[in-house]
Design a protein that fits this description.
By secondary structure, the protein is mainly beta. It has a domain of about 80 residues: predicted glycosyltransferase like domains (Thrombin, subunit H, Beta Barrel). The protein has no helices and seven strands. A six-stranded antiparallel β-barrel has the order 2-3-4-7-6-5. Strand 3 and strand 4 form a beta hairpin.
Length: about 120
């Protein structure tokens, strides 16, 4: 590939809200199909006003509904699984999108400017 070229299309899709690197404790619960309800304490890798990328030991499926709870504030938000990534040491990268934007859920003192537009 020539220097300076990439495999990405010329038109790049803009994110709805900026991602922020944040290692924050989180509790997730849900009801996998044909399995008992699960509840897992985990943490975030990145967050945005629209959701998060987390590490999860429980097996989940795309489109599955889950509830995220911020243990510092006890705030809860419903979301769905939108991304299943690679696994490391028994934990999979899982993307979750909130049902509604929730920029205040993460309790970030200086969030990105585009979070205020949500």
């Amino acid at each position: 590939m020539p220097e300076g070229k990439s495999n990405y299309p010329a038109e790049v899709v803009r994110r709805r809200s900026e991602r922020v690197l944040l290692d924050m404790p989180l509790v997730i619960r849900g009801e996998p199909e044909h399995k008992p309800t699960f509840r897992e304490q985990t943490f975030t890798l990145t967050v945005s006003a629209h959701g998060a990328l987390i590490l999860l030991g429980t097996t989940v499926v795309l489109g599955q509904t889950v509830v995220l709870m911020n243990p510092k504030t006890w705030d809860e938000r419903k979301g769905k699984i939108t991304y299943l990534g690679s696994s490391h040491a028994g934990l999979a990268q899982v993307g979750i999108e909130f049902e509604q934007p929730a920029p205040d859920f993460w309790s970030i003192s200086s969030p990105p400017a585009d979070w205020n537009l949500c």
